[in-house]
Automatic annotation (TrEMBL):
GO molecular function: ATP binding; kinase activity
InterPro entries (UniProt xref): P-loop_NTPase (IPR027417), PRK/URK (IPR006083)
Record organism: Eucalyptus grandis
Entry coiled-coil feature ranges: none
Family annotation (PANTHER family): URIDINE KINASE
Record domain Phosphoribulokinase/uridine kinase: where: 75-239
Protein name, as recorded: Phosphoribulokinase/uridine kinase domain-containing protein
Residues making up the signal peptide according to the UniProt record: none
């Protein structure tokens, strides 16, 4: 079945000229969720981001609850431009799924904390190592454009996803921003995890191995936001790490182009 868009429109409360509450559409954020299990296109209106997180979590919990195989995994790919809020959304939804999980809520032993059934798997851990960038034909360009699709290791990501599907558990790398390199086997997706949200910029690309990664997901979400606003946010993020403003803007243009998504 072809995927159909699953829209979450975000509304905000404001005051009209008479001081009364009114609703207006917040154009600064719109989320499209492409869900292969939906025959219709549902639309949910929310007054704040918390409502959106709640709706997405409630959408996922039944999928985990009906899994016939206790070790089965529902693997979701969350993509969007840099600065769109992927990490925040993934974290908030995972927290809510774990709170909503029926077995957790109905645990008979209050002395035992039930294990979480949802987890975030960031794409950041699949950056190429700096030593791998050093070995490229143009190391200077490779380091300057680190964060572009070709500075990641989608082959390793795909292997980890396949191992997770086949074995029910897997160790995956995280990324240490302090040292600027991945940390091997730092995140453990266990047999108890039923919902895995993989988040990253390029998970829905269709070129090369990225296309194999994209086709692997049970469900795909894409955060559709105003590209100008998020790119400015990314520039500020680069500046906050000590880069000069002109370098930050150049890096933003060269590394994070919207056409890559």
């Amino acid at each position: 079945m072809a995927a159909s868009p699953f829209f979450f429109n975000i509304w905000k409360e404001c005051k009209d000229s008479s001081g009364r509450d009114s609703l207006s559409f917040a154009k600064r954020f719109r989320m499209k969720v492409f869900c292969s299990q939906k025959k219709e296109i549902p639309t949910v209106s929310a007054r704040c981001m918390d409502d959106v997180y709640d709706a997405l979590a409630k959408h996922l919990v039944p999928t985990a609850a009906v899994a016939s195989n206790p070790n089965s995994k529902y693997i979701l790919g969350l993509a969007g431009p840099p600065g769109a809020g992927k990490s925040t959304l993934a974290s908030e939804v995972v927290q809510r799924v774990n709170k909503l999980w029926p077995q957790k809520a109905s645990s008979f032993d209050s002395q035992v904390e039930p294990m979480d059934i949802a987890i975030v798997l960031p794409m950041d851990g699949f950056h190429l190592y700096r030593s791998q960038l050093d070995a490229m034909e143009n190391p200077e360009e490779a380091h300057a454009r680190r964060g572009a699709p070709w500075t990641f290791n989608p082959e390793l990501l795909l292997t980890c996803l396949k191992d997770l599907r086949e074995q029910g558990s897997v160790y995956v790398p995280s990324f240490d921003h302090g040292i600027g390199d991945p940390v091997e086997d730092d995140i453990f997706v266990s047999l108890q995890h039923k919902v895995v949200i993989v988040e990253g910029n390029y998970l829905l690309l269709e070129e090369g191995v990225w296309g194999d990664v994209s086709s692997f997901f049970d469900e795909k979400w894409f955060i559709d936001v105003d590209i100008g606003a998020v790119m400015e946010r990314v520039v500020k993020r680069h500046i906050s790490t000590g880069r000069p403003p002109d370098v930050a803007r150049w890096r933003n243009t060269m590394t994070d182009p919207m056409q890559n998504l």
